[in-house]
Design a protein that fits this description.
Shape: globular
Largest sheet: 2 strands, antiparallel
Strand content: under 5%
Radius of gyration: 20 Å
Distance between the termini: 64 Å
Number of helices: 13
Helix content: over 70%
Length: 315
């Protein structure tokens, strides 16, 4: 118990918690746009996984992780576009469409990776992001090493939080997006193009989820492994619910899950008499408990409901 307490109070644990929360935060901030527009963001896992492979391939062949980051965003956006077409244009069941999309992403990324490198045990490496030390701030005692010595996508994830708050709650566009998820019929009567807003929200979720996936393959490590997102897209989706569909709440939820992930890694290193399988399960058990204990939440009123224009016509 003393060893675990020491881990929790260490600067290294705080630093690692921020790192581990970053992919979740990027995906969850993107997912908020989709959820607020009225479409479930259950496809985040597939979007993240596609971004993970695209980032690796982009970085590997170009020699630049920045190209990989752009490729990851593009890949996530393309997957999101497919999901949007299924849910918005063809009004498919959103849960079924998302599960199918996630399964497809697992198979497609594995096939694409093997197509590029063959079936081999050789570990292919790609250029990865390097830490950026913020001048002056990184030299501050305690907070400097914790907050100001991270990778660019990590900074991006945390800077997105105030941007998302501003866009969703302080702009006309954000009001239109939220109206599409609350009362699409009333929104349409006021001139809001509901289908367009839903498409936009889903595509934004894919762009950011793809960037979140890039952190795994060109941030924390410099390679790709099949199914390496390991359920992080599902955790990001859970963070949105746990955060009650608010940017601040979602941010705090991702920090909690990121800390759980960082803790299980460090507890394993302590060599305690705890089965490592149980430690690996810890972040997912915490996610499940959080969803059970969150209580009643106020989701967007039209969330998960396909929208059909008045009169059933399409312009």
């Amino acid at each position: 118990m003393t060893e675990i307490l020491g881990v929790l109070l260490s600067a290294n644990f705080a630093f690692a918690s921020i790192r581990m929360a970053s992919p979740l935060l990027l995906a969850a901030m993107g997912g908020l746009f989709s959820e607020r527009a009225g479409v479930l963001s259950l496809g985040l896992e597939g979007m993240m996984l596609s971004g993970t492979l695209a980032a690796f391939l982009g970085s590997y062949y170009s020699g630049s992780p920045w190209v990989g980051l752009l490729a990851a965003a593009a890949a996530g956006g393309v997957v999101a576009l497919v999901y949007a077409a299924a849910c918005v244009t063809f009004r498919a069941n959103q849960v079924v469409a998302a599960v199918g999309l996630n399964i497809l992403a697992v198979g497609a990324t594995g096939l694409a990776f093997r197509g590029a490198f063959g079936v081999t045990h050789h570990l292919h490496r790609a250029p990865a992001f390097q830490p950026i030390n913020v001048p002056v701030l990184s030299d501050l005692p305690v907070v400097g090493p914790i907050l100001f010595r991270h990778l660019f996508p990590v900074y991006l994830a945390f800077l997105l939080v105030p941007v998302v708050i501003f866009v969703l709650y302080r702009t006309t566009w954000g009001l239109k997006l939220r109206s599409a998820g609350e009362n699409p019929l009333a929104a349409e009567t006021l001139g809001v193009k509901v289908e367009r807003m839903r498409y936009t929200g889903i595509i934004i979720s894919g762009l950011l989820a793809g960037m979140g996936g890039s952190l795994l393959s060109t941030g924390f490590i410099s390679t790709f492994m099949e199914e390496m997102t390991a359920g992080r897209g599902w955790i990001a989706f859970s963070a949105i619910i746990f955060g009650k569909w608010t940017p601040i709440g979602t941010f705090l939820a991702t920090m909690l899950f990121g800390a759980a992930d960082a803790l299980q890694l460090r507890v394993q290193a302590l060599g305690l008499a705890i089965p490592y399988q149980l430690l690996l399960l810890f972040p997912y058990l915490l996610t499940l408990c959080a969803l059970v204990l969150v209580g009643r939440t106020q989701a967007p009123a039209a969330l998960g409901t396909p929208y059909e224009r008045m009169g059933g016509s399409r312009k």
